Amino acid sequence: MLALPLPLLKPCRFLRRKNRFLVEADVGPLHLPNSGRMGELLLPGTPCFYLPRATPKTVGRLLLLESWGVLVGVDASLANRLLELLLKEGVFGPLEDLRKEVRLEGERLDFSARIGGKEALLEAKNCNRVEGGLALFPDAPTPRGARHLRLLSGFARAGGVAYAVWMVQHPLARAFALDPEDRVLYRAAREAEGAGVQLLAYRVRPALEALYLEERLPWVWLPSQEDLEGHHQGRG
C-alpha cells in the first residue's frame, strides 16, 4: 500500500472557524488549507491534529480531524503530493519526466508529465465530504475547478493525455460523485469525459503517521437538473 508519511502531529480541539483559511483551536489560531465549507466536520469540540509551525498569525497547520470515529484529512494541498506518489510509482504508466505547477492559458495545472512516451497533463483535487458512503465534490462552488477541466479537455482533444484525479481523504468513502448542484463544474466534467479526459477518484485513509492510498473508487454520475428536466419532458 502506498503511503505519504506525515510529520509529528499534536492533538487539539476545534472551537470555531474564523475565516476561510483560519480556525480557532484550544491551542490557538491554526491555518486551515482548505476552502470547502466542511460544515459536517468542523463542529465545536471536534478532536483534531495539527502540525506545530508558528507564523505571525497562527501556531500551526490543521491536517486531520475526527468524525464518526475515523480520521479525516482536511489539508487539501496534500492531494498534489498523493498524485505525485501515484505518478512516481508508475500507476499511470512509465514516468519519464515530471514538471510541477505548469502554466497554461493563464491557469496553473498541477503536473505536466511524459508517461510511456506520451505528453500528459494532470490535475489533483481534494475531497473530504462523504454522505452515506458516497464522496461528493465539491463542498463549495469551484469555478476554478471547472476552468481546469476545460483546459484538460482542450489538451485531450489535441491528442494529449489528461487526468483529473480526486483524492478522497475519508476512509468511509465507497464511491465518488460530482455534486450536480455545481452546474458549471458538472457540465465541464461531462465535457471532459467526452473529450477523453480520465476522471478518477481514490480513497485515502488518514492516520497519524501517514496518508494511506487505498483503492480507486467507483465513479457515479448523479443526474443533473438538465437530466431530470429532459426526463420529465420526455415523459410529457
Shape field: globular
Distance between the terminal alpha carbons, to the nearest Å? Answer: 52 Å
Reading the helices and strands in chain order gives EEEEEEEHEEEEEHEEHEEEH
Helix content: 10-25%
Could you give a quick summary of the protein structure above?
With 236 residues, the chain is of the alpha/beta class. The chain has helices spanning 78-88, 143-157, 183-195, 225-235; strands at residues 2-5, 10-19, 22-25, 28-31, 47-52, 60-67, 70-73, 95-104, 107-115, 118-127, 130-131, 134-137, 161-168, 175-178, 198-206, 210-216, 219-220.
What does this protein look like?
The strands form 3 sheets. The chain has a 7-stranded mixed β-sheet, with helices on both faces. A 5-stranded mixed beta barrel has the order 2-3-4-6-5. The protein has a 4-stranded mixed β-sheet with strand order 11-12-14-17. It is α/β, with parallel strands linked by helices and 236 residues long. The chain has 4 helices and 17 strands. Helices cover 21% and strands 44% of the residues. The protein is globular, with a radius of gyration of 19 Å. The model has no long low-confidence stretch (mean pLDDT 94). The protein has helices at residues 78-88, 143-157, 183-195, 225-235; strands at residues 2-5, 10-19, 22-25, 28-31, 47-52, 60-67, 70-73, 95-104, 107-115, 118-127, 130-131, 134-137, 161-168, 175-178, 198-206, 210-216, 219-220.
